[in-house]
Amino acid sequence: MTKNLDKEGLSSIADNYQLFYVDLWGVVHNGVSLHKEAIKALKEITKINKDYILLTNAPRPNSSVKSFLEKLGMEKEIREHVFTSGEAALNYLKENLSNNFFFHIGPPRDFDLFQDFKKMKSENIENSEYILCTGLFANYEENLNYYKDLLEKNIKKKMICTNPDLIVDRGNTRELCAGSVAMVFEKMGGEVIYFGKPYPEVYNQSTDNKNKKILSIGDNLNTDIKGANLLNFDSLIISNGIHKNEIKEKGIENISKSYETVCNYIQSELKW
Asked: pTM of this prediction?
C-alpha cells in the first residue's frame, strides 16, 4: 500500500532515513523554473543533518548541470549535491574508451561530455568504433524511424546511452530522450550500456551509500522508482510529474503494478 504524504509532508518520515536520492527534473524543477517547495525541503533535510544527492539522468557532466541550475536561480550550496548520469558515463569513457573513435547521437549542447576526447569524434557512423547516444538530433527530435535507418548497418557496434529516460516534460512540452533511441537500437538486436537510473552504477558512483537507510524521490516509475526497487531503497513518487495523467486516471497502485514497481509513498509535489 502506497502512503500519501500530502497532509503530513516529507518531515513525517525524514527521521527514518540517512540519505535521500532526489531527482531533479520533475521534482526540483521543470526545465524552466525551480519548484519552491522542493527547494525548501532540501534545506530542511540539511537542517536535520541528513545528506541528499540530486541524482539526475542528465547526459552532461556535473559542471554543466550546475551551470544550468545556477541560471534557474539555485543556490550554490544546493547545486553542490548534483550527480549526473553523464558524469558516471564520463568516468567510464575516460577509463575504457577515450582512444576509440565514436559517433555521437544528440544535440550540440551535450558536447561538454566528450570535451577531453573530442578528437575521437567521428563525423561518419561507419568509421566509428562505438556509438555515444546522449539524446536526439535537433532536426530529428520526433522521428525515431530516422534512427532505425541510421543504426541498421551498425548493429554490431556497442552503444553507450547516457540518459535511460524515454521522455521528459520541458515546461508543458513532452520531448523524447536518449533512452528512446537506445530502445530502438536494442529492439533491432544492438547492445546498449546504460548510465543513469535505474542502473546501480550511477547511485554507487555518486556517494558512499553502503549500509545506509535510503529514500529515493522521483517522478519516473521506470527510472527513479525502479532504481530504488532494484537497490532495495524506499521510494517516494511525485505524482505531478511524468505520470500525472496516468495516476489521475488509474491511481498509483494500478500504475505501479503496470510498471512492475513498488512505491512506498506518494506526494503531489515534494514538500516538507
From this structure: 0.91
